[in-house]
Each structure stands twice: as structure tokens, then as C-alpha cells.
Amino acid sequence: QVQLVESGGGLVQAGSSLRLSCIVSGRTFRFDRIGWFRQAPGKEREFVAAISVSAGRTSYADAVKGRFTISGDNAKNTWYLQMTSLEPEDTAVYYCAAQDIRSGPDFDFWGQGTQVTVSS
Question: How many Cβ atoms from other residues are within 10 Å of residue 99's Cβ?
């Protein structure tokens, strides 16, 4: 059974940094992309960043471009979201997700989420 487990969230002040981690297990072959999404209270879940597992190509939402960096370690099946210059607007539950393009374009596998709270 595939599992994605996020960690690294917390309560920080504006301007601080955090690194989120996502460990993927239960899969004998690679996913095609790993993504980070977030959902703030009262808002819909939104895309944050994604990385192609084989080529390392990255993409970012405009709101985080230049502040967040997605990366990964294939050997450890662990993926990261380095967040810098955090703002109160970044407060949300952050989710790691995995995409298998043979199943379609959607991210079908999701973690439980980790809370990030940024105080002003």
C-alpha cells in the first residue's frame, strides 16, 4: 500500500524558514511527479510546487516562486519543500502528493498533511 507521510510543519514567525519532508513508501517503482499542495482555512486546496522524479523539472505557483524550492532524494524516496521568507498568507495545511501518468494527469496519492502556521 502506498503511503506518503509529511513532516516538518510548525509555528513560525513571518520571515522565517521551514523545510517540509515527504516520505513515499509502498511503491516498487517511481512515480512520475511529486507535488506539494496547501489548503488554508476556508479556502480550496491549491497547487504549490511539483517536480518530475526522473528529470528533476520543477514548477511553482506564482505566490511562492522565488521563496519555495522543491527537491528530492530518489534513493531515500524523500521529497522536500524548502520554504523561506514565510508570510502569514502561507499559513495552511501542506500536503504531499504523487502522480502516476499511466493513471491520468491527476495526483492520485496523498499524504495526511502537515500544518504550517506563520505569525505576523
Answer: 20
